[in-house]
From TrEMBL:
This is Reverse transcriptase. It comes from the Eukaryota.
Length: 99
């Protein structure tokens, strides 16, 4: 999986992939752009290697220590043209993460 070394925010294991992006409030929109660029690169890679993605199984979670995070505009994160709604919690290898 040499391709994923090109995107340092990506951790891949078997058929599972996790992206994690740190974000400062001032860089909110820039971070959303970086996330979408990484997802576009993964879509390009998967198309080249004939790997199917499952946007309907893809989840997005925003974790923050800030109480006013809900005041920020909802990020428009997209995979294969589909908007990914933010989840309140996700499970990664049996470990539950919540916002």
């Amino acid at each position: 999986m040499g391709f994923f070394k090109l995107i340092p925010e990506v951790q891949a294991y078997a058929d599972y992939c996790t992206l994690a992006f740190p974000c400062d409030r001032r860089d909110w929109q820039d971070t959303v752009c970086r996330i979408n660029l990484a997802l576009d690169n993964i879509v390009t890679w998967s198309s080249r290697w004939q790997v199917s993605l499952a946007p309907d199984k893809t989840q997005a979670l925003l974790i923050s220590r800030r109480q006013d995070i809900t005041n920020l505009p909802a990020p428009d994160i997209r995979l294969e043209g589909r908007s990914l709604p933010l989840q309140r919690s996700i499970s990664i290898f049996g470990v539950e993460f919540d916002a």
